[in-house]
Amino acid sequence: MNADLRAGWLYRTAALLGRLPWPCLKALADAIAWLWLRLDARESRVVRRNLELAYPELSAAERAALHPRVLRSTARQTFEMLRTWTRPPAENLARLRERHGQDLYDAALASGRGVIVAAPHFGNWELLNQWLAERGQIAIVYRPPDSPVVDGFLQRARGKENVRQVRAEGPAVRQLFKVLKDGGAVGILPDQQPKMGDGVFAPFFGVQALTMTLVNRLAERTGAIVLYGWVERLSDDLDFALHVEPAGPALADAAPVTAATAL
Asked: Are 194 and 210 in contact (CB under 8 A)?
């Protein structure tokens, strides 16, 4: 079976799983989080180390109390996104109980300067993608996974109306300049680790982290408006809030480290 067929089967399986009632998926997510913690899985070790790096001011006991909560949130987030991928966008967007900054995005798009939405891996970024697509055409930048099966799955999951997926590599990136020059919108996950040479080291929670410079390059060369966007989880029952905020001028600074630090 070729990669495309396997990707199709994977998506259909995900769609069946996504039809389960949310309480069932939430219970499954909590069980997975418990296993991660119990088995000291990679996910658990990564969370432990990240808490040590991000919150050195907390005591070991305080970080230990946060540890299982972060794992549960991560597991639930996975199933939230699975539902988002496999259910109609209109059904998903009805879950946005609050919308903050929607007019800001609409005004930026209407300006004709082009819009870059920097959307970190925070909250439900897949729901943010669907909201952006509801407002009009959007080019989403993504780093292709190593597996062609997973790549095919993502193409199906994210390939909704008005969404154009652009690989964050080589000639494809040049398409983004054209989109912005034409007054279009581009969505970027700015906290993805770039390849060496495509980023600079900037402080993040007090730690030097390799940070992409793509947002800076696009903003500096095109004059596009840069906005931050994210979707916040309001409750454990699929209630969300949209947030759109302006980015500071430092993001378009000619000095890459200054821009990366602002990001």
From this structure: yes
The residues, ordered by sequence, that sit 6+ positions from 137 with a Cβ below 8 Å of its Cβ are 162, 164, 184, 185
pLDDT of residue 196: 67
The answer to whether the CB of 77 falls within 8 A of the CB of 30 is no
Which DSSP symbol is given to 123? B
Tell me the two tokens of residue 116.
């870059």
Structure-token pair, residue 68:
């299982």
What's this model's pTM, rounded to 2 decimal places? 0.91
Which SS3 state, helix, strand or coil, does residue 57 take?
coil
- Its domain, for residue 61, covers 3-86
56/230 Cα distance (integer angstroms): 26
Question: In terms of domains, do 180 and 133 share one?
Answer: yes
DSSP structure string for 222-243:
H--EEEEEEEEE-SSSS-EEEE
Q: What distance in Å separates the CA atoms of residue 113 and residue 111, rounded to the nearest whole number?
A: 6
Q: How far apart are CA 53 and CA 261, in angstroms?
A: 17
Question: Among 63, 86, 109, which residue terminates a domain?
Answer: 86
Report whether pLDDT(191) > 90: no
Q: What is the per-residue pLDDT for 24? A: 96
